[in-house]
Amino acid sequence: MYQLRYLYVKPVIYPIPLIVYLDLPNSLRYLNWYAYPLKSLPSKFSAQNLVFLQMPCSKVGGQLWNEDQSPVNLKRISLFWSKRLTEVPNLSRSLNIEHIDLRGCESLVEIPSYFQHLGKLTYLKLMGCTDLKNLPEMPCNLEFLDLSETAIEELPSSVWSHEKISHLDITDCRHLKSLPSNTCKLKLSGSFSLKGCKSLCEFWELPRNTTALDFSKLLTCKSLVSLPTNVWKLKYLESLDLSGCSNFQHFPEISEAMEHLEFLNLSGTVVKELPPSIGNLVGLRKLDLSWTEIKNIPASIKQAAQLSHMRLINCKSLESLPELPPLLKCLEAHACTSLKTVSSSSTTITQGWGEYIFFQRLYEKHIFSDCPKLDENARSNIMGDAQPRIMRMATASSKFKEYKIKKASYNSNEESFVGIRCCGNEIPKWFSHKSEGCSIKIGLPRDWFSTDFLGFALSLVVVAATGHMKIGCKYNFKTSNGESHEVKRHLCSLRAKNVLTSQLFSCDEVFVWWHNNVLEEVVEGAQSPTAFYKLVTEVNVRFTVRGYGSSNSRRGVEKCGICLLYGKDAEMIKQRAL
């Protein structure tokens, strides 16, 4: 006689009487029933042969079977999103169980203590069991444990000393107050996040091979004040995100070199100072200190030689910046209203001249907008550093172009650029051509275009303004035979920082730009670009500042400048910096 071993019931609404009188065969090994409508299995059904049981979104409320029905051969049970489930079905005799999925069972209040004796259990998912407050000791072979969005207040010490768990998720455990104090032997294969653990106020040790620590996002660790010094024992740590930890104030001394840590985010914390050992973050690439209480940054920051991005937005207490790392290509120091001094980084820029990586988009942005207290020396240093930054980028871009041409993959639309911005009302001293107003016209010498020509640097002073604005320019190249060729470029878009006041600038601001592919647009389609360039005798650049949003905003260009760049000048700039 044929024995039914597999039963899959599709998500269809069945009449209750049909279910009541339905007999399940005792031979059944696989039962998959979506939205099972009863509190328990039929009383005549013996679950001894059952190996796989899946009843998502079921109406099961308590015990699914009685003691005589115990599924002694059960290996996998999934009752996820069974919102009426108040207790785990009795699995004390299911010693072969390997996989338990109870996620979303929001009425579940406890996990039985016998779970620690389920020696073959490797997978336990309790995510979203929002009434679950306590967890017993865990079995020895557990590998996957998901406790996210539960109400647990503490972890069992056995979890912390477990050597086989490779995945542990405790994100959004809003009531978790502390982590175990015993030695952590966890060997996690992925990231370990404490995001959303807003009650967490202390911990002593973390998994050694942790690659990411995330305390960020809404409702995060508002009780966390400091990190244990042994956090630097996490040699494989790649990311440390403390953003939004509004009471975090003590950043520990970095006791040893961290080669793998690439991202550090302290935005929204109350850290007032970084330790001098910040230079030990030798692998750091991105540092975010926005909205913090930071006053000064240690001079040792320049030892973080791989640092390429640093955000200092709204650091109202920041007073000074030291010499910065050589490869820093993006610095956002917006609304640092106490910032007075900025050291020159020309020496480190020169030292990092040959270290640009050509196999990615080349750009640099250094923004000191809405920093009204910058002294004259600081503004001079920022704009003085702009010259070696631009020359370094232009040289790298030229080499990159040569490499791409050799590889037959050059695309003239691949843009490299440098943009510098800070409070001020003077065109940088190193600009050879300056003019009042929004346009500048210069005559070009006969040999202006040569093999080492690196393009044009542009600068302008924009008056204090409100509202949003777009800044652009139009090049007009004129030739000896009367031709005229125009190239339009969008330089940047600026948005008001305050929607109500539409405030954009608190003072006049100086901008400096360089783009790599202006001339490619001029000679597009020309058979002999070099011959065409020899005919060009004059260039006129007109800048436009267009507002959008506020019609009566005061805006305009007071001064502008242009500078021709040549490779032969690079060595002179290097020597001057050293």
Automatic annotation (TrEMBL):
Transmembrane segments: none annotated. Gene3D superfamilies: Ribonuclease Inhibitor (3.80.10.10). Pfam families: C-JID, LRR_14. Residues 423-570 form the C-JID domain. Residues 229-338 form the Disease resistance R13L4/SHOC-2-like LRR domain. Keywords: Leucine-rich repeat, Repeat. SUPFAM superfamilies: L domain-like (SSF52058). This is Uncharacterized protein.
